[in-house]
Amino acid sequence: MKKIFDNCKQARRYGPSTGKCLIQLESGDNAKEIIKEYTKTREWYERTYSNPQRFSEYTYKVPKKNENGQWELVDEIVKGDLILFDTYEEYLD
User: Fold this and answer.
1) CA-CA distance, 63 to 74, in Å (whole number)?
2) Inter-residue contact 3 to 21 (CB < 8 Å)
3) DSSP letter at 68?
4) More confident residue, 34 or 93
5) Cβ contacts of 78 within 8 Å, gap of 6 or more
6) Non-local CB neighbours of 8 within 8 Å, separated by 6+ positions
7) What sign results for the dihedral spanned by CA atoms 68, 71, 75, 77?
8) Which of 12, 31, 49, 74 is the most exposed place for a label (fewest CB within 10 A)?
9) Which residues contact 69 (CB under 8 A, 6 or more apart)?
10) What is residue 13's three-state secondary structure?
11) Residue 87 neighbours by CB distance under 10 Å
């Protein structure tokens, strides 16, 4: 199992954070067990994972420097056996 990204961003001040988590399975990984582990019940203050979706290809934006030395968002394509989760984290003061 290889975690490609796991993020949670706060949409507004003093609000909860939401995001995505992308996992790439390697040979021998059991997808059902990984989904079960990630979606298990957690404490209210811990990051939760829900809505698992399986993909063979996923495209997302990443910041990279171009030839002029300026940052821009470019498409990053990941192929393989992928699981995408929605992430949620309650705001903690």
Assistant:
1) 6
2) yes
3) T
4) 34
5) 4, 22, 24, 57, 58, 59, 60
6) 17, 18, 19, 47, 87, 88, 89
7) positive
8) 12
9) none
10) coil
11) 19
> What angle (nearest 5°) sits at the alpha carbon of residue 33, between those of residues 3 and 38?
50
Predicted structure pTM score: 0.88
Structure tokens at 74: 């470019």
Looking up tokens 């059902």, which residue turns up?
Answer: 32
- CA–CA gap between residue 60 and residue 55 (Å, rounded): 13
Q: Hunting for tokens 């404490």 — which residue is that?
A: 43
Q: DSSP assignment of 14-53, as one string?
A: TS-EEEEEEEEE-TT--HHHHHHHHTS---TTS-EEEEEE
pLDDT tens, 37-89? Answer: 999 999 999 999 999 999 999 999 999 999 999 999 999 999 999 999 999 99
